Structure formats: C-alpha cells, structure tokens
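Residues pack. One example:


***
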Amino acid sequence: MNWLKTYDTWTLERISRHLLYWSTWSILYVLTNYFTVYDRTLWQCISHELLVLPIKMGCAYFIAYFLMPRYLYKRRYLEFILTAMVTTGVFGWMLLLLYYEMIYPTILGKTGHYYTDHASFIYKGVELIYITSLVLGIKFFQNFLQERQRNQTLLQEKIEAELRFLKNQVQPHFLFNTLNNIYGMVLSNNKSAGESIVKLSEILGYLLYDSDVELISVASEIDNLENFIELECLRYDRKLDFRYQKSVIPFDVYISPLILLPFLENAFKHGPAKEEGKSIIDLKIEIINNTLSFTIKNTYNEVSVDNNLKSGIGMKNIIKRLELIYPERHELCIKRGKMFEVNLKIKLSKSI
C-alpha cells in the first residue's frame, strides 16, 4: 500500500486505509481500558469506545481536512491555532455531554455531577487533543513527504530538460563545424572529401539513433570518437601529427553519450586549424577499476582558446553536463602551457 498516494475522492481504497487506522486505534484503546481499569467488562470498554469514536473522528477530520488546507497550508498560523482551539473546545464539550448523559449512567453505571466540573471538561479536551494531534501529525508528515517527492520530481525533470537542451546543442554545433570543414575540402579539390562524407554519415547515424539514450557503452562512444578522428585526419593530412593510445575497453561499462566528443572537437578546432606548420594532438584513453581516464593535449593558438573559453558553446556546455550527470563522480582539469591539456576522470556505471 502506497502511503504517499493522494486521492481526489473517497475511494474504497482510501476508506479502507482510514478504517484500518481507526480500528487499530480503537482496539488498542479498548484493550488498554480493559486491562488497566478493573471494574469494567470488555463489553463496557467496547461500547464506551464505539460511542466516543465518532466525536474523536469528527474533531480530527474537521481540523485535518478543513482547517489545515484553509489556514495552515496558506501560512495563516494564528487563525489556524485559534480555530483549532475553538474546534477542540466544541468537540470536547460534546464529548463531555456524551459521557454525562449516556456513558457514565448507562454504560458504566455511574452517576454524579462531578463529571461536569471544569477539571473533567479540561480532561476531555486534552483527550481530544492528543488523539487529534496524532492524526494531524500523520497528515502533516504525509504532506511533507509528498511535497518533498514532488520537489525531487520537479528537480529531476528540470535537470533532464536542461541535459536535453545541452545535448541537443552538441549536434548542431558539431555539424556546423564538420560541414564547414568538408565544404573547404570540396573547394580545394581534396580527394578525401568523398571519404569524409562517408565518415560523416556514420557519425550522423550515431548522433541521430544510437546516442538518444541516457547511457551507452563506452566502446560505442569510443567508436564514434574514432570515426570523428578519421574524418578530421583526412582533412588535415600532413599538417597534423595525431597520437592515439587506448587501453582494452570493457563492454560492460557505460557512459553518457557525446560527453567526450566536445573535448576532441575542441582540440582539432584550435590545434591544426589555428596553428601554422605541423600541429600535434595527443589522445590517451584508458579504463582502470571502472574509472575512465581521458587525456588530450594539443598545440594551440592562445587568442583562439581564450575566445573559446569565454564565449564558445562547446566547453561551457560540456562542463555543465558533467556537473549535472556526474556530480562528485568526475574530475576535470584544464591546463595551458606549451600545449593545451584536458584531463578528465569519470567513475563509470556498470549497468544501464
């Protein structure tokens, strides 16, 4: 039974839950009176509880389902306290009359006007307060858990929406740069332009179909990176010294799609594209104890990199995605020396 479930109407399930609560409470109350008050029979204890139960329920439900939504949930605390006190007083007086007119003389066989004095009135009010307080406490705690669950759901939806937005930015950003590159190859009559289009089609298949998931195998992600590497190497040819090391990649570890591509794209964009003469890109990927270590270094043009870090989509995008997807599960270090260097470590998932 889901205790956090909310209802718009009084369904059979909801009624059953309330009957279970009051039945449990009544049984405990009957047994307590029967075993602690020695001059009462079990039938007297049951009759006594059945008579007072409607008043207890009426007080609890009036406060929980009328006063709380009307005043407490709207933060009108003083009005809630005052109306709750008046309600308790009214129901306490009704309970006192019930004891005086029926329970004591008829059920328990007792008479006497001392049952109508001030002390007895206060006692009945206190009796109602602790019974009602328990109901209100349960109701308030249930509302608290529901509100927390609702906030967590809204936060998760917000994060997922933001991730979708950031992920969708990667594709047009990447395609814009790649198509520009291929267009340049076509204009310069580069014989590799046709092969580049084939590689681009493979990458597009990955972007459109394979990457539309929360997690993907690291092997698939690296295959896409290697397609991109081949595409870029075709373009730059002798202008680029590309070095690549990769450890054995297990097939049972998973990563968020397109989380590594922006770093690689950034290295090509600000390496051979901006440097005169031969440029260097050094990439190393390894997985140790389910932790991915991704290191990429490239020669760079300092002005170009500064502009990219300040206004570029790629780096800001990927840093934000890492914070959202891998909070406290990743380390990112970016260094600028003779070469621009990115060191990324991610604690990977073992299952989808």
Summary: DSSP finds nine helices and seven strands in the chain.
